Amino acid sequence: PQPLPYVAPVMGGLRPGMAVCVQGLVPPHADRFRVNLASGPEDEADLALHLNPRFGAEGQVVLNSRFGGQWGPEQCRDLQAFVPGTPFEIVIAVTPQDYRVRDRVGGGWGVLCWSMGAKGAHWVVRGVPKGQ
After folding, report:
1. Strand-strand pairing, 19-25 and 87-94
2. Is 119 inside any structural domain?
3. Is residue 32 part of a domain?
């Protein structure tokens, strides 16, 4: 397993036809975690895609982007593929129009679409401990 946060460059940036696969295990007492497609490794880098499963009372996946320090409008979806204490798998496919986030749910794949701005040149997976 990779330590978190995991930060890796995508040489040449993400382009249509490419995909990023993220597999992991949601810790049993997780409050939330995030997967970011970012323009660089810095915490304040622009985020072309911010995928943030939130557990507890919220119980939803939030999709968003951040450019120039400004967050865009959130898109919220049901939290089906992410359950504390269980493994997950998501594939983020890049198309000319958007990012297609597929998650493995009950043997099938659900698809979330997020319109893209700038393409991320790095991707970051960060676990956020409960209570933070």
Report:
1. antiparallel
2. yes
3. yes
Domain CATH code at residue 104? 2.60.120.200
Number of domains forming the structure of the chain: 1
Residue ranges in 8-95 assigned as alpha helix (H): none
Has residue 1 been placed in a domain?
no
Q: Is the pTM here over 0.85, yes or no?
A: no
Task: Domain of residue 33: give its range.
Answer: 6-127
Does a structural domain hold residue 132? no
Q: What is the pLDDT along the chain (132 residues), one digit of tens a residue?
A: 677 788 888 888 888 898 888 888 888 888 988 889 888 888 899 898 898 999 888 788 888 889 999 998 888 888 777 888 888 888 888 888 778 888 765 444 455 665 554 444 444 444 433 333
Place of tokens 């995030």: 34
Nearest CA among 66, 80, 116, 74 for reference residue 95: 116
Helix (H) or strand (E) holding 53: strand 47-54
Q: What angle do CA 44, 45, 48 make, to 5 degrees?
A: 130
